[in-house]
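Data deposition worksheet. Section B asks for the primary sequence of the deposited chain exactly as it was used as input, without tags or linkers unless they were present during the calculation. Section C holds the resulting structure in token form. Section D is free text for depositor observations; keep each observation to a single sentence. Incomplete worksheets are returned to the depositor.
Section A, Depositor: J.P.
Section B:
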Amino acid sequence: MTVPEAYGLGPIKVRAITGDAVETAAPLTGSGSSVSGCSGGGGVSSEGSGGVGLSCGEGPAATINGAMSLKVVELLDAAAVLSIEPVG
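Section C:
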């Protein structure tokens, strides 16, 4: 899914949906990145060549680059409902 340039990310790709998390990856379009918060023991990893990977469960939203909120609203068997919106 494509997000506004102001978020500092290229298109976000869903890599996997498990019973308790959604794994995503996106290239960085800026010089750095910051991520805070992912419920369910979520994490962040470098994806090489200027990208980030997230693994987030249902619950509180992650804040990315201080500009974007990504929340896993609901996890289903093979699908997930995500909410992406500006912070603030």
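Section D:
The CA atoms of residues 67 and 88 lie 8 Å apart.
Strands lie at 13-17, 22-27, 35-36, 43-46, 51-56, 62-64, 68-75, 80-86.
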